[in-house]
Amino acid sequence: MKIGILGGGQLARMIALAGYPLGLQFVVLDPDTNAGAGGLSEHLLGAYDDPALLAQLAEKADIVTYEFENVPAHVAEYLSSHTTVYPPAGALAVAQDRLLEKNFFRDLGMRTAPFAPVDCLDDLVRAVADIGYPAILKSRRMGYDGKGQVLIHSAEQLETAWLAMQDAPSIVEGFVGFEREVSIIAARRPTGAIAFYPLSENRHRGGILRIAECRSDDPLQTLAEDYVTRLLEKLDYVGVVALELFAVGNELLANEFAPRVHNSGHWTIEGAETSQFENHLRAILDLPLGSTRARGYAGMVNFIGGVAGDAQVLGIANAHLHLYDKAPRKGRKVAHATVRADSADCYRAALQQLADLALATDDS
Amino acid sequence: MKIGILGGGQLARMIALAGYPLGLQFVVLDPDTNAGAGGLSEHLLGAYDDPALLAQLAEKADIVTYEFENVPAHVAEYLSSHTTVYPPAGALAVAQDRLLEKNFFRDLGMRTAPFAPVDCLDDLVRAVADIGYPAILKSRRMGYDGKGQVLIHSAEQLETAWLAMQDAPSIVEGFVGFEREVSIIAARRPTGAIAFYPLSENRHRGGILRIAECRSDDPLQTLAEDYVTRLLEKLDYVGVVALELFAVGNELLANEFAPRVHNSGHWTIEGAETSQFENHLRAILDLPLGSTRARGYAGMVNFIGGVAGDAQVLGIANAHLHLYDKAPRKGRKVAHATVRADSADCYRAALQQLADLALATDDS
């Protein structure tokens, strides 16, 4: 059985590593000659929308999946009409557009921050009069890791903010003074069976995820499972999904979702009984989903821009290093490390040491 | 950093899977076009003693290791003189010859079964007069999975047994009525630091390992660590070693050792904080060794000759499947499955289900 992956970066790399023990083979399509999944798979080298390469991908792969959501609609359509593609193209369409996404959440009865579409400065002025300050203006499409976002504190900043969007269709959202950002990762099979991971609690800096920690027995787990179930069922979703949520008291506000394995779930490699990568594969192959239970305490630290020496990371008790085989570059995720431990004290000490190491090499 | 591996079967495959997260690349030398590690590494296709391929392996790899011990002495010498080879050639020489091995154990003060060299029928007759019945006649070299061994119950069987050896230099050993067979797996760095895994308790049938279970807190752990430490230090060993022992009451008899990662340690992939495969790599790279602690209860079942359907194995709670990408063949190890669980009951139930599945597909 051969799995095709659109994108050959670290997510594809970790999917492939999880797939070999299941007897799977891989083919990735990626324009980067040094794509991290390259050594683990057949590598179709070229643009994501190259028709000849897409035809090859559809031909070689029994099932196609992807490691990013910004797949052009015509590419998703082409692949879907030539082979089995999971998650379904409909999930991509929603996840690619912040306005569709927020309306989708609202239609499913999930709470969100107040939001409004913005296609011109007038729209922005009117919407913010309603929503208040601070507000965030975001381009509807192609945003990730905090890019394409402007925080607006006062009326004087409105025009500059709109100019920064360069006329891109946008959305303005009320700024949520949230207490915690959490994400729920879940996997769904074609049969409809769903497995939920314990919540991840996520810390960002500069719009980039830095630390994600497993929160077993979080009081908001049940509500998060309810939210993500609505999403999965509405989309007739197959595969792993990550739903990012703001926690405010006992409430959850849906922020965005990623129709793929997700950085906030990397702790599952060592920290859960079955990793998100393996469960993504089990889901798209319609195999029984593996247990999502945490194995003790678990968390993850991203290395951004550069990574500490291997010996430094591996010298920390219970630390597990995951290099992505990517050249260091400012603001680039090049590795992560997981901590898993049976005791809270051991866990916290190791996570702090990793966070310190990550900060020392972080250039962003 | 590129690691060369002599042999590209399932052990090389699992070493490579453990090595990618550490940023390593691999090149294997294996005569089988379908070698299981092939998709994960550069594959030099040909005989293990092909001079041109050995030169390529030494040239391409920063460090060379191997997945089997029957490496011809001249091959080990050639590689050692052209690149760094771990474990050291001296360990291979001892492990390849049952007589050298038993003398080595005895010289290190380990208990063994009674044994004597046999080079002719007279030797055998004389030795067995001393050792008694039952006794086992074994060829000194190239024995694995019970091959090249004859059990002798009475004087009438002596001549037939010796004929079966076809004049190969042999060793006869007293048959040990052992209670348990255990193995200790340990890793040693060039600096001398050693990490010990909890004992594995191993069940064989037909000379082939079927089930290995992690035994945390076994009363014989300390003695086993003492034995393997003597071995590691005497050989100035670097890498993972497996020492197989017979447990008789409070005593351990050294049976044999494998200078490599070992089937009885496959439960460490999910069942230990750091797998034997990763610790082998950490050891040969002189990186800090990872924690060898068990994560709860853990064990492994081999699939011999064939494997149950993926869905059957993955439908068992906490079961983890490891396919080797090998065509089914009578008596061939084609996969294993691990169970890891926090409760003894859950563990035992899952292991039993796996053992039943393995038995149903086992043709040997």
Automatic annotation (TrEMBL), chains A, B:
What are the alphabetically sorted keywords of the record?
ATP-binding, Ligase, Nucleotide-binding, Purine biosynthesis
User: Is Cell inner membrane there in the keyword field?
Assistant: no
**Pathway of action:** Purine metabolism; IMP biosynthesis via de novo pathway; 5-amino-1-(5-phospho-D-ribosyl)imidazole-4-carboxylate from 5-amino-1-(5-phospho-D-ribosyl)imidazole (N5-CAIR route): step 1/2
Could you tell me which residue ranges the ATP-grasp domain spans? 102-285
Give GO cellular component annotations, separated by semicolons.
cytosol
> What InterPro entries does its record include?
ATP-grasp, ATP-grasp_carboxylate-amine, ATP_grasp_subdomain_1, PreATP-grasp_dom_sf, PurK, PurK_C, PurT/PurK_preATP-grasp, Rudment_hybrid_motif
> Record's PANTHER family?
PHOSPHORIBOSYLAMINOIMIDAZOLE CARBOXYLASE (PTHR11609:SF5), PURINE BIOSYNTHESIS PROTEIN 6/7, PUR6/7 (PTHR11609)
Q: Under what name is this protein listed? A: N5-carboxyaminoimidazole ribonucleotide synthase
Which lineage?
Answer: Bacteria, Pseudomonadati, Pseudomonadota, Gammaproteobacteria, Methylococcales
